[in-house]
Specification:
With 120 residues, this protein is mostly helical. The chain contains seven helices and no strands. 70% of the residues lie in helices and 0% in strands.
């Protein structure tokens, strides 16, 4: 899961490298790495009103995570990558428009435990 960011999102390479260097003796946990690198990037893309192939690519990746057989991978998506989208109405509304079916299902779970099921 560490190297997938490099392969799938080459634009993030310098951010990933910087994040990895802050943890000199060990690799950061996936929640830390994805949260510190991917979340700010996605948030900024969603704040831009233009359509973006990059954001579609990210949400396609999110859908792959949602479809994973690995519970930890789905947890990474839910807790680290999707929950943060609920913090900003504009970001959230744009994110919903890019979400694919399984990602939307996980997002609905978040809405239930945040008691905001009808936010979109």
């Amino acid at each position: 899961m560490y190297d997938i960011l490099y392969r799938r999102f080459p634009l993030l390479k310098s951010l990933i490298d910087t994040e990895m260097q802050t943890f000199e003796c060990y690799k950061p946990g996936l929640h830390v790495l994805y949260g510190n690198v991917l979340n700010p990037y996605v948030t900024e893309l969603l704040k831009t009103p233009n359509e973006s192939d990059e954001i579609r690519k990210i949400f396609s990746f999110y859908e792959e995570l949602a479809l994973s057989d690995d519970e930890e991978v789905r947890n990474l998506l839910q807790v680290t990558l999707l929950e943060c989208l609920w913090d900003d109405f504009i970001v959230f509304d744009r994110a919903i428009s890019y979400m694919l079916p399984e990602t939307k299902k996980i997002n609905e779970i978040i809405g239930a435990y945040l008691n905001k099921p009808n936010r979109h």
